[in-house]
Amino acid sequence: MSDALEAAKSCNPDVLVMQGTDAGGHGLARGAGIITLLPEIADALNEANLGNTSLVVAGGIVEGRGAAACLAIGVTGVDVLRRTDGGISTVRTVVYDTLRGTTDWPERYDARSIINASYLDIQDGVITEEE
Fold first, then answer.
1. Reported confidence tier of residue 58, pLDDT bands at 50, 70, 90
2. What pTM does this model have?
3. Are 71 and 42 within 8 A, CB to CB?
């Protein structure tokens, strides 16, 4: 939430695109899901007299009920993605970045990715992240 508020204060944007930890790809390793995050951000923007900033949700919303919840909270738009299994086949980890050699992400970031053989091999000790 602090990143969103800082961005809004620094440049007073027309729109903030929000992503919670339930979204895929790179994001904060520690954070909140989008449904929890939205009311907190909306309240913080209102308290900072930035309530005219439109909020758009991107990531973590996979069907109409989630979109309806976001709209009820007061967002302007929702990017509804393909239906998934609710994160059961995904994991937040830095394993894939380590394997690819793309380890220049700030320490507070990781990524949500699909669990695959490489991830399972590391978990089972078949290969190490250093190899």
1. confident
2. 0.70
3. no
